[in-house]
């Protein structure tokens, strides 16, 4: 009876609590998300990241067509290539843990530090989605990968 009462109390107090494992581990930063789409002719590398690998979009990831979502950040941060980023609000929106990977940089991001992250999306319409143009908590994994990127994509 005690266990049943506890379960009932938990449901009443936390009705929207998820049992899914969307936990993000690492260092948290308040940041502004913006979006770019790789087919935009203004991009310096087109649909390639700083290591000439394909850029993968949020929509490709959500549809199960990629293993991560490509993002760009300020090169002066010297964030290692392929560092994992977690954005809890987007995990919640899409009801899945989304693996964002830092795979490029942008001249427009130089000097902005952790205050901005740019997320790859499929097209211009997706670039205007509020969820990828918002102030969010970003969690940067403490795992280290390869060396940082040089300046990459150019934002219009």
Key structural traits:
156 residues; disordered C terminus
Structure, described:
By secondary structure, the chain is of the alpha/beta class. Helices cover 18% and strands 22% of the residues. It contains 4 helices and 6 strands; from the N terminus they run H-E-H-E-E-H-E-E-H-E.
Helix-strand category: alpha/beta
- How are the strands of the biggest sheet laid out side by side? 1-5-2-4-3-6
Q: Name the poorly predicted regions.
A: 1-19, 152-156
Biggest sheet overview: 6 strands, mixed, barrel
First-last Cα distance: 61 Å
Helix content: 10-25%
Number of DSSP helical runs = 4
CA-based gyration radius: 17 Å
Question: What is the H/E string?
Answer: HEHEEHEEHE
Work out the strand percent: 15-25%
Number of strands: 6
User: Average pLDDT value?
Assistant: 82
The backbone outline, from C-alpha atoms, is globular
Note the topology:
Blueprint lengths: L1 H12 L13 E10 L21 H5 L6 E4 L10 E4 L1 H7 L5 E5 L11 E5 L3 H4 L7 E6 L16
Parallel strand pairs: 1-5, 2-4
Antiparallel strand pairs: 1-6, 2-5, 3-4, 3-6
Summed up:
This protein is α/β, with parallel strands linked by helices. About 20% of the residues lie in helices and about 20% in strands. It has helices spanning about 1-15, 60, 90-95, 125, and strands spanning about 25-35, 70, 85, 100-105, 115-120, 135-140.
């Amino acid at each position: 009876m005690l266990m049943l009462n506890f379960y009932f109390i938990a449901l009443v107090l936390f009705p929207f609590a998820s049992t899914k494992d969307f936990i993000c581990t690492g260092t948290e930063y308040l940041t502004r998300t913006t979006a770019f789409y790789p087919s935009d002719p203004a991009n310096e590398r087109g649909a390639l990241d700083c290591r000439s690998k394909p850029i993968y979009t949020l929509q490709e990831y959500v549809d199960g067509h990629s293993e991560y979502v490509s993002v760009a950040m300020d090169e002066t941060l010297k964030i290692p290539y392929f560092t994992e980023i977690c954005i809890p609000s987007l995990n919640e929106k899409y009801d899945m843990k989304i693996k964002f990977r830092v795979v490029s940089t942008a001249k427009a991001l130089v000097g902005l530090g952790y205050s901005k992250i740019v997320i790859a999306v499929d097209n211009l319409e997706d670039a205007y989605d509020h969820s990828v143009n918002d102030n969010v908590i970003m969690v940067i994994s403490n795992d280290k990968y390869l060396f940082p990127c040089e300046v990459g994509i150019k934002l219009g």
